[in-house]
UniProtKB/TrEMBL annotation:
The lineage of its organism: Bacteria, Bacillati, Bacillota, Bacilli, Bacillales. It comes from Gracilibacillus caseinilyticus. Pfam families: DUF1569. Gene3D superfamilies: dinb family like domain. This is DUF1569 domain-containing protein. It comes from the Bacteria.
Amino acid sequence: MHSIFDEYCTDEIVKRIDKLNEHSQPKWGKMAVAQMLAHCSAFQDIAMGNSSPPRGLLGKVVGRMAKPIFFNDKPLPLNMSTIPAILIADKKHFERERERLKQKIITFQENGPEKCTSHPHPFFGKLTPEQWGKGIFKHLDHHLKQFDV
């Protein structure tokens, strides 16, 4: 399974982000491209420990059991629910969000697993740095496929 801690994977993701433009349209979902970039950036903040949304009741009840469904080689389902704290509804500036996300991804990769947050994921609970690296890659890959890159 791919991980954002792998420099090759990070380079691939950044190149795909560079293929987006402000007119990119989603194949599914409601977010505009700039909102998707801001959403992914907010998810990076959680993994980096810059934000610590509380765990919801559903995550506390089934999050741990759902880990095997997420941490595998299968693609994420379309239109899956998201963490409420990183749901982006307001209009965003495309170039600013694209550059912000790329910088966060590169910083996360360069900082390495030892700089991952120890705060629990809002749904899955406690994750190892390896799980964070794989989860970040899978989440980014999912949203880039959403915008056909």
